[in-house]
Amino acid sequence: MAKDGKEDDYPPGGGISRRDFLRGGAVAGALGSAGLLAGEIAEAARKNPAAAPDGMEVWGPGPVPVRLRVNNKAYDLKVEPRTTLLDVLREELELTGAKRVCDRGTCGACTVILDGKAVYACSQLAIDVQRQPIWTIESLGRPGRLHPLQAAFVEHDAQQCGFCTPGFVMAAKALLDQTPNPTLKDVHHGLSGNFCRCGTYAGMRLAVLAAAPLMGEEEEEEEEKDVKDGKDEKDLQGDGVEPEMGGRKKNKKRRRRKGHG
Amino acid sequence: MADPVDPTVPAWPEAADRKLIGQRIARLDGPAKASGNAKYTYDLKPQGMLWAKMLLCPHAHARIKTLDVAAAKAMPGVKAVFVIQKVGAEIQWALDEVAAVAATSEAQAADAVKAIKVEYEVLPHFVTEEKLAGAPKVDPGEEEKEGDADAALAAAAVRIKGSYSMPSVAHNCMEAHGQICHWTEPDHLTAWCSTQAVSGVASQFAEGLGIPAANVRVIADYVGGGFGSKFSVDRWGIVCAQLAKIAGAPVKLMLDRHAELTVAGDRPSAFAEIEVGAKKDGTLTAWVSKSWGSGGPGSAGDPPLPYVFQIPNRRHQHSAVPTHKASSRAWRAPNSPQGCYLSMSAIDDLAHALGMNPLDIVLQNLPLTGRLEKIYREELEVADQLMGWRQRWHPRGDAARGPVKRGLGLAIHTWGGRGHRSNCEVTIHPDATAEAKISTQDIGTGTRTVVAIVLADTLGLPLDAVQARIGDSRYPASGGSGGSTTVGGVSSATRRAALNALGQVFAKAAPALKAKPEELEAVEGKIRVKGAPERSMTWKQAMALFGRTPVTAAGANPGPGELTTSGVGGVQMADVAVDVETGVVKIQKMVAVQDCGLIVDLQTTESQVYGSLIMGISTALAEEKVTDPVTGITLNHDFETYRMAGIGDVGELVVRMMTGPGYDERGVIGVGEPPMVSPLAAIANAVANAAGVRVPWVPLTPRRVLDALAANTGKGVA
C-alpha cells in the first residue's frame, strides 16, 4: 500500500491503479472466469462495459504506459500488463544481471531491492511497482570498480558458474542494509531465499561477513555517475525518489575504496 | 613425469619455481559475474532476435493423432512454426518436444504454442523401476565374477545382507539449456550456447543441419552450470536453428524450468541387494550383489560394485530397466556416487555387525584398493584429525539423552581425471602481453583462470599481462568439460604452447645474452641466464628482437612429456544430528580430504570440493525426482517441490587438499567429479550411526528416517 494514500492519482496518464486492478479481479469473478488470464479479463471487461461498473478503466491486454524508477533513472515504457518486473528489466532495459531461473518466486536469482527490501523480480508485475524505487545489481559496481560486497564475493570465491550470484549479492545487500553487523545465523536467514546449484555457500558466508564492515562507503559517487544514460532522463528529486540504496542512511564521508578491482 | 633436467621434454616447474601455480588466486571472471556484467546465453539479444517456445507432450507414452499449427501461424508476432514430430510419431517420455514457434516476443510465442491443436492417442507407460519384479522389460547385464563368491560368503566369519536405494536426481542447472541461433549467411550458423562442449557442439549442429562444420561457430562466454547435462546440441538446438532459418532472424530458445527439471538431465536411479562377508578382523572376503536402475528408455550406467575395494571373491550383476522417462545424462562422476553409496553402506553395516569402528574396517582393507592405498592412508589420518573421529565415534546408536542423536560416517572414493585432448595457441605480443586461445569452456569450474595462470607462470609474466580466450569454437579444438578432464587437458596444452613460444624467444635472445637457449629462463618479467640473473633482458626487449610481429606457437595434449595423469583418492567424513522424534536430519560438519595431483589454482580447486559437499548434502537430504505412476509426469518439476539444500542446511564444511611431494609430481588432474562421489555414502552412514538403524533409502527425508526407526522397533509411523 502506498504511503501517501494517493494511489489512484498515480501515475499521471499511465499504469493501472491498485483499486482498478482489484476491480478487474471483481469483474473477472462476476463473469465467472476465475481461470482467465489477466489479458482475457481485461478483454472481457472491454467487450462488456456494463460488467465494469463505476467508470472502471480497462488496461491491456496490449501494451500500456508504465513508468519505472530503476537505479535512480526514470523509464517511461509501454509493456503488456502481464509483464513481470524481471522481464522488463531484462528485455526492455537490458539490465540482465537479474536472472530468470525458476520464474516463480523460489530461487532468488532475480532478486532486486524494492523499497529497501529484497524481492523476486519474477513475482512482481511491472505495472504494480511504479511508485517504488528499484535497485538492481547494476547499481552496485562494475569490474574495476566493484562494490565491497561484490569484491568480497570475488575474494572468497562465493561463486562458480555465477548465474545465481547477482541475486545473492542483492539479497546480501538488503540483509546488510537492515542488519549491518550480522551473525552467521543472520546471513543464513538473509540468504535463505536463494539457491546456488554449484554449491558456493561456504564462500558466501565468508564474503557477507567480511563485507559487512565495509558497507556504506561506496555508493554516492557511483550513483551520481550513473544518472546519465536512462532512456528518459529526468530530474527525480521532485518525485521523492530515494537517492540511496535500500533506504539506508548513507555515510556522508566520501571515501574512495581501496584494494578492490 | 618427465625428467625435469631434459629441456626438450615439457614438465611442470619445480615447487620453488612456481610463482602462481598452486597459489590461491581469485577467479579472473569473478568481477564480471559478481557485478552482473557477465553475459550468458540467456542474457544475449542480437539485433532482431525472436523468442521460441515449444509445445511439449503431456503424456509419458503417446502417439500423435492429429497436429494442426495453422492457428498458431496466424497469431500476432509469429514468424516461424516448426513441426518437430509429425502425426504418427510415438512419444516415449513426458514433455518431449512436438512443435515449436518463434515470435517477436516471448509471450507471443507462448500464446502461439497454446493455439497449436494436437490430439494424442495415450499409450500405456511404465515409470516406477523401484521394484524389479514389476518391470515390463528388463535388460540384464552380464555377471562379473572373480574367485568363488558363494563359497567365500558361506565361509565368512561374519556376513550381512542389505538392500539400498537411491532415486534419480536432476542436474537442475541454474541457466536452463538453450541457445540463440543466427544464420549469418544461408549456410553459415553462429550459435550462442549454454554448453559444456563448445568444440563438440559445433560439429553436432553441422551434422543435424546438413551444413559444413567449418561454417558453424559456437560461442559460450559464460555458462550457468552444466554438471554433465550440457554436452549435446540436443534436438531443441537443431529446432532453434531451423526456426531461425525459416524466420530469417536470430532465435533464442531456452527451456522453461519445468522442462529443464523433467527432460534436460538426471542421474540414473540405482537399487541393490548386497551380501558381503569378512573375517573376524574385518578383512573383506566375499561380495555378491544384484543391482538395477533406470536411465530412461535406453540403458543406464552400471554402478561399479563393489566400489574401490577389490574383494577377492565377488560377483555382481546389473540390470537396466527401461522406463518412459527422458534419458539420463552424465551426472558428476557418472555411476560412482551410486557405486560408492551402495558399497559403503553395505560395508558400514558389516562393520556394525563386526562391532568394528568403520575407520578400522576401511584401514584394514586398504590393500584391496591397489595403488591408491598410500594416498587413502594419509588422507584418512588427516580426516580423522579434522573430524576428531577417534575421540568422537561411538558404536551405532547414540546413547545420549534426548531425541537429537549425533553420529559419524565416512566414505572413500576415486576417479580418473586424466586431461582430455586439447589444443592451445599462444601469442606473445610486442608489448609483452600474451594470450592463449582454446576452444574450451568455463562452466564455473575456473577453466579461464587456470589457463591464464599456466600461461603467466610459464612465461614469467604477471597475471594481468595475459588473457585466456575461451568459449569460441573458432579457437583451437578442445574436449568437452566432463569427467574432470578439462583442467588436465587445457593446462597441459597451454603449458606446451607457452613453452614452444618461449623456445622461439629463447632462441632469439640467447646470442644477445651470450648464452645457449637452454640456459635461459623466463622469470619475473625478464628473460635471463639461469644462475646469473644479472645477465637479463626485459620481456619487451626480448620481443623487440622480433620487430613488430608477435610470436605464436601451438601446443597440444597429449604431447611430449607427461603433464597430466589419472587416478585420485579422496576421503570424506560426515557428522550429523538426527531427531528421532521428527526424523529431521541436520548436517553438523563435513570433512573432505582430496588429492588431485598438482593444483593450478588452490582457491577454485577448493571451491570444486566445497561445491561437491554441498551438492552431495543436497542429494543426501532432499533431492529426488518424483514421477507419478498414474500420469507418468515428473511431479516436482519446480524449485518449490524439487527440494535442494540452502545456505543454512549445509553445516560446517572443512576442505583439505593434499599437496606436495607424492602428489604434485603426478601432474594436473581434474577434481570436478571425485569429491562428488562420497558425500551421500558418508552422510547415510552417519545417519545410521546416529539413529542406530540403517535408513536404506536416500534422500534421508524425515519420513524415511521415521519409517526405518519404526521398522526397527516394530512400532511407530510406518
Question: Which descriptors would you attach to this protein?
Answer:
heterodimer; A: 261 residues; alpha+beta; DNA polymerase, domain 1; 10% strand; disordered C terminus; B: 718 residues; Aldehyde Oxidoreductase, domain 4; Aldehyde Oxidoreductase, domain 3; seven-stranded mixed β-sheet; six-stranded mixed β-sheet; 17 helices; 27% helix
Task: Kindly describe this structure.
The complex is a heterodimer of chains A (261) and B (718). Among the domains of chain A are: 7-51, no CATH class; 148-214, DNA polymerase, domain 1 (Orthogonal Bundle), CATH 1.10.150.120. In chain A, 30% of the residues lie in helices and 10% in strands. Chain A contains eight helices and five strands, in the order H-H-E-E-H-E-E-E-H-H-H-H-H. Chain A has a five-stranded mixed beta sheet, sandwiched between helices. Chain A is elongated. Chain A starts with 17 loop residues before the first helix and ends in a 35-residue tail after the last helix. Mean pLDDT of chain A is 75; it is low at 1-36 and 220-261. Mean pLDDT of chain B is 96; it is low at 1-5. Helices cover 27% and strands 25% of the residues of chain B. Chain B is α+β, with helices and mostly antiparallel strands and 718 residues long. In chain B, helix 8 (336-354) runs parallel beside helix 16 (679-691) and helix 15 (602-621) packs across helix 16 (679-691). Chain B is built from 17 helices and 29 strands. Classes of the chains: A alpha+beta (261), B alpha+beta (718).
Oligomer status: heterodimer
In CATH, the topology of the domain at 352-417 and 565-713 in chain B is named Aldehyde Oxidoreductase, domain 4
Order of helices and strands of chain A: HHEEHEEEHHHHH
Instruction: Categorize the overall geometry of chain A.
Output: elongated
Low-confidence stretches of chain A: 1-36, 220-261
Adjacency order of strands in the biggest sheet of chain B: 3-5-1-14-11-12-13
Please tell me what the overall shape of chain B is: flat
Largest inter-chain contact set: A-B, 63 and 57 residues
Strand order of the largest sheet of chain A: 2-1-5-3-4
CATH superfamily of the domain at 352-417 and 565-713 in chain B: Aldehyde oxidase/xanthine dehydrogenase, molybdopterin binding domain
Based on DSSP secondary structure assignment, what is the total number of beta strands of chain A?
5
CATH superfamily of the domain at 148-214 in chain A: [2Fe-2S]-binding domain
CATH topology of the domain at 148-214 in chain A: DNA polymerase, domain 1
Summarize model confidence as the mean pLDDT of chain B: 96
Major sheet description of chain A: 5 strands, mixed
Please give the largest β-sheet of chain B: 7 strands, mixed
